[in-house]
Amino acid sequence: MASTLSSFWDQTFFIPSPAFTAKNLPDQTGKIILITGGYAGIGLSLAQILYSKNATLYLAGRSASKATIAIDELRRTSPTSTGRLEFLPLDLADLTTIKPAAQQFLAQETRLDVLVNNAGVMNPPAGSVSAQGHELQIAVNVYAPWLFTQFLLPILKSTVQIPGVATGSVRVIWAASFAIDAVAPKGGVLFDEETGLARGDLGREKAYGQSKAGNVMLGVEGARRWGKDGILSLSFNPGNLQTELLRHTSVIQKALTKVLMHPVEMGALTELYAGWSPDIAFELNGSYIVPWGRIGRYNKDLEEGIANGNAEKLWKACGKVAEDFL
Fold first, then answer.
1. Residue 207, domain extent
2. How far apart are CA 297 and CA 123, in angstroms?
3. Any idea which GO molecular function terms this record carries (predicted)?
4. Residue 325 lies inside a defined structural domain of this protein
5. What is the CATH number of the domain that holds 240?
6. b/e 199-220 (16+ beta carbons within 10 angstroms → b)
7. Contact between residue 136 and residue 124 where contact means Cβ atoms under 8 Å apart
8. Is residue 308 one of the residues assigned to a domain?
9. Within a domain: residue 150?
10. Is 273 a catalytic site residue?
């Protein structure tokens, strides 16, 4: 409990000023960035920074209409940008959409500098499941991003080899949350003994915490597997923010957000640090980034869960869920 309160205090109230902002970001001409959920909330705020620096952005998600509005806004706010903006249809609640989305991207591009696994769902109505019948939060926040990343891994690896690409600049970043400290189960993820998959019977809040702990585990395990290929894999807590993730919360919870939550623009700086700060060298691969861009630590329970093999176990569970969709 003391550790949780300390983390909450440190990541909510007494947060150091951001060390890496748009002013520090060099020109991104020629860079290709893919952001899931990039047309709303934190993803859109990050896109605004990157597009202003001439990056080419793929905004992946379900809603073409929302993406069109976001793209118009980005062009309006950065009229001199030489970057490109593309919408990529992707529904993380349905694994059948993952491969077509990746194939569409791969048919259009020959490099991918940063993959931002930003999209997620939080506390949906009780009993919500994905198209494949998995608890919705673990499906959208963990299983689908893992599968999407697998399809994009070859282009990430080949981007590392492009002449002029800076060491450590090709990255995969995974959106976690303070929920890993507040509501995740002991060990981060609880596994069903019969199926080997993450349990889906934990209740909405704990299931959300489990999915976010899962994102930390994917960051750690990705670093272990891909570090030799020159790819950085990191997780981040963007901060307690006023975003669309709160759409399923109660009236009381929404009222509390006005006191405890920060503007989404601040969360974008956490993502910016995770994806672009040159301070993150390979010895920090697998790190957990906290607001508004600094190396943090997750709680002892999660640390022990990872040390005891839960990250590798989750990776295998993702593979089992995805085997019919590869």
1. 2-319
2. 24
3. oxidoreductase activity
4. no
5. 3.40.50.720
6. bbebebebbbbbbbbbbbbbbb
7. yes
8. yes
9. yes
10. no
Dihedral sign for Cα 33, 24, 226, 308, please: negative
The reply to whether 208 belongs to the active site is yes
pTM, two decimals, is 0.93
- Per DSSP, 286 falls in state T
Per-residue pLDDT of the chain (326 residues; tens, 9 = 90+): 445 544 554 556 679 999 999 999 999 999 999 999 999 999 999 999 999 999 999 999 999 999 999 999 999 999 999 999 999 999 999 999 999 999 999 999 999 999 999 999 999 999 999 999 999 999 999 999 999 999 999 999 999 999 999 999 999 999 999 999 999 999 999 999 999 999 999 999 999 999 999 999 999 999 999 999 999 999 999 998 676 555 445 566 555 656 667 689 999 999 999 999 999 999 999 999 999 999 999 999 999 999 999 999 999 999 999 999 99
Q: Exactly one of 51, 143, 208, 298 is catalytic; which is it?
A: 208
